[in-house]
Write a structure and sequence with these properties.
heterodimer; A: alpha/beta; ten-stranded mixed β-sheet; six-stranded mixed β-sheet; 18 strands; B: alpha/beta; seven-stranded mixed β-sheet; globular; binds adenosine-5'-diphosphate; binds magnesium ion
Chain lengths: 363, 1083
Amino acid sequence: MFAGRAFGHPGETAGEVVFNTSMCGYQEILTDPSYAGQIVVMTYPHIGNYGTNEKDEESQRPYAEGFVAREFSSISSNWRSSEELESYLKRHKIVAICGVDTRALVRHIRSLGAMRGVISSVDADPDRLMEKARSARSMLGCDLASWVTCKDPYAIAAPPRDPAEEKFRVIAYDYGIKRNILNNLLRIGCDLLVVPASTSAEEVLSLSPDGVFLSNGPGDPEPLGYAVANIRKLLGRVPVFGICLGHQLMGLAFGGKTYKLKFGHRGGNQPVKNLLTGKVEITAQNHGFAVDPDSLNSNEVACTHMNLNDQTLEGIRHRNLPAFSVQYHPEASPGPHDSHYLFDQFKRLMLKFRKYQCPSEPI
Amino acid sequence: MPKRTDLKKILIIGSGPIVIGQACEFDYSGTQACKALKSEGFKVVLVNSNPATIMTDPELADRTYIEPLTPESVSAIIARERPDALLPTVGGQTGLNVSVELAKSGVLDHYGVEMIGAKLRAVEIAEDRRLFKDAMTEIGLQSARSQIVKNMAEAKECLSAIGLPAIIRPSFTLGGFGGGTAFNTEEYEFIVSRGLDISPVHEVLVEQSLIGWKEFELEVMRDLADNVVIICPIENFDPMGVHTGDSITVAPAQTLSDKEYQQMRDAAIRIIRKVGVETGGSNIQFAVNPENGDLVVIEMNPRVSRSSALASKATGFPIAKIAAKLAVGLALDEIPNDITKKTPASFEPTIDYVVVKIPKWNFEKFKEADPTLGIQMKSVGEVMAIGRTFKEAFLKATRSLEKGKTLTSEKVFPKNLDHFLVTPMPERMAYLHYALCADWPLEEIHRRTKIDPWFLNQLKEIVDMGKRLQEHTRADLPPELLRECKRQGFSDQSIAELLRPAGGNGVSEIQVRQLRREAGIRPVYKRVDTCAAEFESHTPYLYSTYESECEANPTAAKKIMVLGSGPNRIGQGIEFDYCCCHAAFALKEAGYETIMVNCNPETVSTDYDTSDRLYFEPLTFEDVMEIVEVEKPDGVIVQFGGQTPLNLALRLQRAGVPIIGTAPESIDLAEDRKRFGRLLQDLKIPQPQNGTALCPEEAREVAAAIGYPVLVRPSYVLGGRAMSIVYDEASLDDYMRTAVEASPEHPVLIDRFLESAFEYDVDALCDGDQVVIAGVMEHIEEAGIHSGDSTCVLPPVMIDHVLLERMKQYARRLGRELKVVGLMNIQFAIQKETVFVLEVNPRASRTVPYVSKATGIPLAKIAARLMTGEKLRDLGFVEDLRVRHCFVKSPVFPFNKFPGVDTVLGPEMKSTGEVMGVADGFGIAFAKAQLSAGLRLPREGTVFVSVNDRDKPGLLPIAKDLQSLGFRLLATGGTQQFLERNGVQSERVFKAGEGRPNIIDLIKSRKIDLIINTPWGERSRHEGRAIRRAAIQHTIAGITTLSGAAAAANAIRTLRRENFTVQSLQEYHHAEESQRTWLYVKG
Ligand SMILES: Nc1ncnc2c1ncn2[C@@H]1O[C@H](COP(=O)(O)OP(=O)(O)O)[C@@H](O)[C@H]1O
Ligand SMILES: Nc1ncnc2c1ncn2[C@@H]1O[C@H](COP(=O)(O)OP(=O)(O)O)[C@@H](O)[C@H]1O
Ligand SMILES: [Mg+2]
Ligand SMILES: [Mg+2]
């Protein structure tokens, strides 16, 4: 039980309580569909200082179930701001709470692992709230992607550019895709068709794309058997690039296993080592599950990236097929831009494949 | 990338004396670098002219040179030590400049010394504003429009391109000296012409003004594998136009969206790569246009800086330590994060609290100085505070400043409100507070100050909370409101001041404290862990806040708590931090758990590995008591942190805190004029006649009874109100009027001023009954010039044996009588054959580090052991310490930062730092000290002499001496005639106004090599000042006392005979002795 002051939309909400250690970028976090079903605790105490604006939306609306901070700013001060956080939260009916000892809450989660919780401005009875928290849906085993994926496919054309430069037709599976991923794909010259999570491999292949992208998304990859099945069919037929949930699905498609991390990685300061170059990237991350490297067949699959904090797997590529993926968020937003190069790597992979159907990007 | 094995021995260059803009943050970085490189198995050679530093402790480096930081002496050290590499990036601007000179002059190549960390080229690009600007343009980054100007015509011309206001920076002046901001053409022409005049190459840079833009700093780390991380974004509360060193700064940045921050981060990474700083910490400053987010690069410091010290303390990421390891080839991911142990240093710290730094100024000591804050730094110190919110951190920082008053009780003059809001000055915060209390709309305040509305709104929330308090009396104050106030950071003191008095009588801090405790409102302690609690912290680096969970978990060990000295200020600086660190080291060695409490981010004491536990907290009664109650230490040490903890001693003891060392009663006795006077009488120790007065009339009587001249000072000083020497009744009345205002309830103290008396400082160790004299220092300047401002020599060179013994006797008597346990400092003045006691400080003094370096005995360490009950005898001390060789300490003054301020010395301390010169004889030791202090004594040339009548007789031998050394003598009328009459030939020169070319002209055209000018008394003071200012501006050795002149002549004589040689402390204190030192220090 943490008592605090209600903020944003009055009411009650339940979900898995997770914490994010980014010091800014709260709007991008709120609108990241991967947070569907989760109550997000910001470790940085002051949230809302620079307000909100259209440009920082990562999707049509906030997906977080609830929002917790030590202190929400009563004003917004930034030339980019078009709306203050409070009215933004109210408008989107996001229940939030402030004034709680967020550090204590984070330490609680760190030691006991991500857990279900409830925020309420209508009910103050500890026992009832405890009950509600217990009965909140658990992430494990439920297909959250199906909630957040687009209902119908939609196309976005790459911005006009020098005709000399290559263009690609890329199909992006939307498991809860972030806007900035689309922007990065457009940047490298992709004409995009964003398709629902359930779209079959056959449909995709029938459009003979230059590449397929597997997006980020909320929750547990295990229940997405249908997605894994589709990816299996795509492997080798077309270059595939996956991010976050997309990476976990790739891992499963490669025959690996995934598992739930104790409290996940959420923040913009995670050190990841690129095992091919030895370089360290500071990465944006947001995931509660991970691919188990030992579950992968090392003759077929190469581990390309590793998290230096806890040695968990952050990136893989297939040795013989044109497919690779990373657990973290090279598109950042919020977070550092160190890993943008991965999109260009995807571009090179598509180029090669187009030229000589070459199976894989040489190391 | 593995550590380099081709390097064995590395030279580290320190930053020299504490000066404005370069304080003990570089002792912190240098110390970390030494430790880091030693721990990696390298041999470390260190050079620094500042004896008051931890880094110059013989244990820290393999070879420690306390020598001038000039190319000559450093190359001599290189020639002797033959290091493989030089680390130029941890010694501030001084260290960097010397390194660059050595590289350019080919010394490094000649001896095959590699510059590691930053190569010459990179440093040049970063330091030369033109090269830097071009580099920025090449990578597509904006910098302020600017133009080089070589004369007035060009200046007028470029104005059209640059526009007003304009920033003017003279080229190649020390620390941007002579720069400024021009708001109109008049100011513009004035500053430009002054700049052209001052600049050695007669050139100034005229730059587009970005005043009012938001200012940010990023601390960037890079390793040889080209991994780059940002340690911390810092936002300036005061917008562009106020030097970051004079700005309130806040970590992390508060008003940037992620998009903007990442753009800045990308820029920083591009910059460090473009400039080519290979490894380690760099500091990059940006300006952001609040209207549209335009990003402009201000500058890059290719080295660790004041801000990197701040960022290290703010995040727990030890920038200098890591930088040193990166410089020898380690990669960020090969270095573990000390605090989490499990994770690597290749990450970007994230914090779950707010850090606020507030500067401290000392303008009251420089009355003629312009207190307007601008592009040149003027503050002498700073405090940092950590809180869970900005408001909490801000209020904690405010009370850490030790202003003696709270924001609410600051004096403001409403009619000046506008002026004080528009013009940044130290008082601005008080006026902001006033305006907010007066319900000024934020827009109005923002329009005048350009301070970001977010910050203003935070302050407003503080003020509003205060207003809510004012509606209540102690009786009807709801606990919830009290808790809210504490959560916002209000001190018990300020709450007491705000509460409405009930039935006429006000509320006391203690009463609020009781209320709070009855309501169970107590702080908890949270940890600084670099990762916002994502990983477990193994380092107890703590700050207080009012939350639910406490992470202090104190141990059951036997523990001792050391109270630090708070912000640096003139009179209380690094020397005291040095003592606190030594206490921690010694007690750790003796098996105690050590707890440090301090709020100064520049220091070594606030390094989390100096003590076992670090509480980064204000040094107030309230904050200290709360820590004591959590930790329950077995002893608390108050005598090392200067006046700050001493002022708390009695209250703490009465509250039941176990103070160890000299009893607070004795401390009190020594400071209580009347009682102490009686004690001296009983002990038959002479003291200058003295009395006290409350009003001008009384003062006259007392003075008349004592006889002029007298030395007057307020008994209780808020922010160091002047002490001065008064020669007649008129000036006495004058003084009384100003002084008494300073603090009505306290009388003014009047002492007989001992004319032409020799002054001595004595430091002694005492265990309650036995006293060991550690050092007797002879001042070069006579009594009347503050001990902290006079050059002194150890051992004494002129004193007669009998008097020396008498001083020691007195010291012993006083030590026993006051039952001193630990350190004691006594100031004596000897007039004719009488030894007077000027004052006794039963605490560690400013001279402790100097005496420790001179004797090779770590006094503070021993004192700490004495406080825990050990006896001098047990530690192997029976007779007084002896000093081989000659150790001269010279002060360093901030005059070049304050145009227009007179450089004449007096009884009020003005120096910010000190240097030490060591040699076998006085002459060279003195010359070295002078050189380190920035005065190069000429071996030949022209001397200008002009002294007051009191000094004329004394001038004769000196003049003769100089002449016999072949100097040409110039003198002003009176002095010239006097010399003439006494058979010394000299040429007359005009004073300003008597004709041209006058002496000022000669100085400007560099026709003078040495200036001896003692003040001519109040009347014609401005005349002398003009001369002394000119000397400062053109860095000509200027001496303002006869005794100083005599010493200089003596030094010059020796200089012409022999040359400097350099030697390390380890060699000065031969093996067996330092062995001994070890034995007992280790215990
Ligand atoms: N073009 C400018 N317009 C307004 N203020 C400036 C400008 N350039 C610098 N400043 C202010 O002057 C301060 C010192 O300038 P800086 O270039 O950092 O010199 P330093 O080497 O002394 O730090 C900065 O912190 C900033 O506040
Ligand atoms: N009676 C005196 N006669 C001459 N000089 C004095 C006398 N008292 C103090 N001074 C000078 O003033 C300086 C400061 O006085 P002191 O009592 O030491 O104050 P502080 O507490 O600031 O050190 C001394 O170092 C000494 O040079
Ligand atoms: Mg600067
Ligand atoms: Mg003194």
